[in-house]
Specification:
Elements: E1 17-25, E2 35-40, H1 47-50, H2 53-56, E3 63-66, E4 72-78, E5 81-88, E6 95-96, E7 102-104, E8 114-116, E9 120-127, E10 138-143, E11 146-152, E12 158-164, E13 167-174, E14 180-187, E15 193-199, E16 204-212, E17 215-216, E18 221-226, E19 235-238, E20 244-250, E21 253-260, E22 266-273, E23 277-283, E24 287-295, E25 306-313, E26 325-333, E27 339-344, E28 350-355, E29 362-366, E30 373-381
Parallel strand pairs: 1-8, 9-15, 16-23, 24-30
Antiparallel strand pairs: 1-4, 2-3, 2-5, 5-6, 5-7, 9-12, 10-11, 10-13, 13-14, 16-17, 16-20, 18-19, 18-21, 21-22, 24-27, 25-26, 25-28, 28-29
């Protein structure tokens, strides 16, 4: 924690471990000046560790090097952990090392070799969208552990991805609001190039108006995600000055609609789409929980504690391995005096998740209803 006045930080640098190997062509010739990258594999984030994931997320920066004239490389300064290794050279396809990430544990790792194939070209076109919507479409080609390429469209909706390797690729077109269409394309050695069409089905349109306390909600957005998918990208739309929104191209099915107010309160409700429809979303006033967080051992206030209200749906159909479906309903942090004020949108089953580094995280049920205010709620954290 940074305190008032001069703060001193001492840093001790460790030499770290290394990963080494070779990069060669399919004919066995060494490839000089090939680029090799080591991407740290992030550990999974548990529910108790999320807090405000957007504030906590720090992107990993890959370490990279180039091969010598004999095709050898070495990446040093690595901590223990798992790393995705990828190699690329001009005119050759990008490649990942092996079937699994490379594990570094207590010593350097040698013999991680790459054999690069000559790159193949994939041409394509996006259809089903008006010309003024093409500029924001992003095209990607990926395999299980490898992003082969990324590009945008020309004025006629066409695209080209070069230096892809042989094999089956998932080619995806994504609009700025999260709408996607994808196809699988198999490229074969010696094929040269292939063509794919990505067609956006017209689908159904969901329009609506969002009102909070009788007034249009302005300066926010709505997000829509399939109810059967606990994870994955959502369709989003900005709410205009009249409180209205529109999301096009929806398939028939059940969706979860989420509305985030500027104060961080997030409302969610189920929407069944079987055709074009217009809805009115009236947001209930938030519930408010206020109090203090203290250290259970010292009885002193604790600052910087993440308090997240979530709405739990135990009956939802979710991804295998997940214990329950949940949606965020509100977030706050305790201040320097351990005080907090949490506004949230309660549901049929609402829980409070409490987490801070150095303390045991936990969850507890909340029984507040919309518009209810409760103060003086003390939370005790057990030090680890």
């Amino acid at each position: 924690m940074i305190e008032r006045g001069t703060n001193q930080v001492d840093l001790k640098l460790q030499p770290g471990w290394g990963i080494s190997g070779t990069v060669s062509t399919a004919a066995g010739a060494p490839l000089p000046l090939a680029r090799v990258e080591a991407h740290p594999v992030e550990p999974p984030v548990s529910l108790n560790e999320t807090g405000d994931a957007r504030q906590q997320y720090v992107p990993w920066v890959p370490l990279e090097t180039v091969t010598d004239q004999d095709g050898t490389y070495r990446i040093g300064g690595l901590d223990d952990g798992r790393y995705e290794l990828r190699a690329h050279a001009d005119g050759y396809a990008r490649a990942a090392a092996g079937r699994f990430p490379v594990r570094v544990e207590g010593q350097s790792v040698a013999g991680i070799d790459f054999v690069l194939q000559r790159g193949l070209t994939l041409r394509g076109a996006v259809t089903g969208r008006p010309p003024d919507a093409l500029a924001g479409v992003r095209i990607t080609a990926s395999q299980e552990r490898l992003l082969g390429g990324m590009t945008t469209l020309d004025l006629e909706g066409r695209f080209q991805l070069d230096e892809l390797g042989p094999g089956t690729w998932t080619v995806r077109a994504e609009e700025p609001d999260g709408r996607t269409v994808e196809r699988s394309v198999t490229l074969e050695t010696g094929q040269g190039e292939a063509f794919v069409e990505l067609n956006f089905d017209p689908g159904f349109a969901l329009t609506g108006e969002v009102r909070s306390q009788g007034q249009p909600l302005v300066g926010s957005e709505v997000a829509l995600v399939e109810s059967t998918r606990q994870y994955g990208s959502a369709r989003t739309a900005r709410i205009d000055q009249a409180g209205r929104f529109r999301i096009d191209g929806l398939a028939a099915g059940s969706y979860k609609l989420m509305v985030a107010e500027p104060n961080g309160v997030t409302h969610s409700r189920q929407i069944d789409v079987q055709g074009a429809q217009n809805i009115l979303v009236n947001l209930n006033p938030p519930a408010v929980l206020a109090g203090t967080v203290i250290n259970a051992a010292t009885r002193q206030p604790v600052a910087g504690v993440n308090l997240v209200a979530i709405v739990v749906d135990p009956d939802a159909e979710i991804a295998p391995g997940a214990e329950e479906a949940w949606a965020p309903a509100g977030f706050t942090q305790s201040n320097a005096h351990g005080e907090y004020r949490l506004e949230f949108a309660p549901g049929a089953s609402t829980s409070l998740m409490v987490q801070r580094e150095g303390y045991e995280g936990f969850g507890l049920p909340l029984d507040l209803v919309a518009g209810e205010r409760r103060g003086g709620f003390m939370i005790e954290l057990q030090p680890k």
